[in-house]
Amino acid sequence: MEIIVNTDHQVPCLPVIFIARLPRTCHQADKTPVDWGLCSVDAYIKGWEAADQERAQSRARQRDLKLQTLVRLASVMLNKSGYEGLSLAEIANVLGITKQALYYYTKSKEDLLFKCYTRALDLAEQAYDHSDAQGGTGFDKIASFVRFHLNPDAEPYAILDNLGALTEEHRQAISGRAKALEQRMRGFIREGVEDGSINPIDPKFAEFWILGSLSWMPKWFKPDGEVSATEVADSFIQLIGDGLRPR
């Protein structure tokens, strides 16, 4: 996908940190706007200011903040265009830097994919830790997990749908960690069966259903759409409850 930069209008949606150097609006070659489902630019002004402050304190910290921004943007673009449609040149263009400068933050396209998947698993682990800390029944923990992912301030994450593009080493690392995290969801389901908040059910199939549905939400959910993240979370939890909870 070729990107054409238009500087006549302010970007309605941009990632953090690189904001001061970003082009105003990005369009595809057919003049239609590129929609990556990103958040409003206003939400990231404080992030840019924080990066400026970090610059004076630590170059390593500044690099880390910019790498986080790069991975956020790449995650959204992956969900929109897939790995084959992901272009480092386009990412550099959107960020207002050269493609060569991009290699300061990532070794290759495959390395960037690995970073996106690693970050997605980091976010999932945070959600599980948060749900465990909240306590309650097994079903309560599942509901907490869903709300953590679908709160209005939740960060975008890459869907793990192209493991075959990773090197063998990276693929094993991501697959192994993903399977370990899946066991935590099955643990919530087992707790629910034991405490009576969930009907007796095979935890494996229930986990496939819950995580399969939740993981694909970045494909269709838009934070600035007609339905809010809170409303989506409420509906999703109701659907899970209708399927799992005793009547």
From TrEMBL:
* Residue ranges of every copy of the HTH tetR-type domain listed in the record: 64-124
Q: Which UniProt keywords apply?
A: DNA-binding, Transcription, Transcription regulation
Q: Which residues bind DNA?
A: 87-106
A GO molecular-function term, please?
DNA-binding transcription factor activity
Superkingdom of source? Bacteria
Database matches in SUPFAM superfamilies: Homeodomain-like (SSF46689), Tetracyclin repressor-like, C-terminal domain (SSF48498)
Q: Which InterPro entries match?
A: Homeodomain-like_sf, HTH-type_TetR-like_transc_reg, HTH_TetR, KstR2_TetR_C, Tet_transcr_reg_TetR-rel_C_sf
One family name in Pfam for this protein: TetR_C_24
What's this protein's name? TetR/AcrR family transcriptional regulator
Tell me what organism the protein belongs to. Sphingomonas ursincola
